[in-house]
TrEMBL record:
CDD domains: BldD_C_like, HTH_XRE. GO terms for biological process: negative regulation of DNA-templated transcription. InterPro entries: BldD-like_C_sf, BldD_C, Cro/C1-type_HTH, Lambda_DNA-bd_dom_sf. It comes from the Bacteria. This is Transcriptional regulator. PROSITE patterns: HTH_CROC1 (PS50943). GO terms for molecular function: DNA binding. Residues 13-69 form the HTH cro/C1-type domain.
């Protein structure tokens, strides 16, 4: 594996981990020691080659398809992907049901499909946000502002939808 490829792969691994709100130590804790912080850190820095088997296992641990971890798979080969959309499920639970009901059901469906029940955060795609915008009968940017005001979505999400809102 070339050094540049290893660094790009590592950057993707780091992005997925941080998107899920995990520190290196958090990965070790969540995996009950299966993934050592020092090993994951060396993969992320590109200091250590990761086998295909271990990459598949790590993708499974993070709950993402393997191709999401591979360099060069971003549309158009963008150097930096747009910010990830991460719902704060703990804050969502405190939003009144009459406002957040559709979002709560949508998030529960995604969790069920992924088998991801950490209950703290949930990554969604821009397509998910567009679907939710239709459900809420709002544009993606208006819905984004609403979710930010509820404290469910980070303000960085504005950048993810800013160029994508038609």
């Amino acid at each position: 594996m070339s050094s540049e490829y290893a660094k790009q792969l590592g950057a993707k691994l780091r992005a997925i981990r941080t998107q899920q709100g995990l520190s290196l130590h958090g990965v070790e804790e969540k995996s009950q020691g299966r993934w050592k912080a020092v090993v994951v850190g060396s993969y992320e820095r590109g200091d250590r080659a990761v086998t295909v088997q271990r990459l598949a296992e790590l993708a499974d641990f993070y709950g993402v398809p393997v191709q999401e971890l591979l360099p060069g798979t971003t549309p158009g080969g963008a150097a930096e992907p747009p910010p990830k959309l991460v719902l704060d499920l703990e804050r969502l639970a405190h939003v009144p049901q009459e406002k957040a009901g559709p979002l709560q059901r949508y998030a529960a469906t995604i969790q069920s499909q992924r088998g991801d029940y950490n209950g703290k955060v949930l990554s969604i795609r821009q397509d998910d946000l567009r679907t939710l915008a239709v459900i809420y009968d709002q544009s993606p940017s208006v819905l984004t502002e609403q979710l930010i005001s509820w404290g469910v979505l980070d303000a960085d999400a504005r950048r993810a939808v800013g160029h994508d809102d038609a």
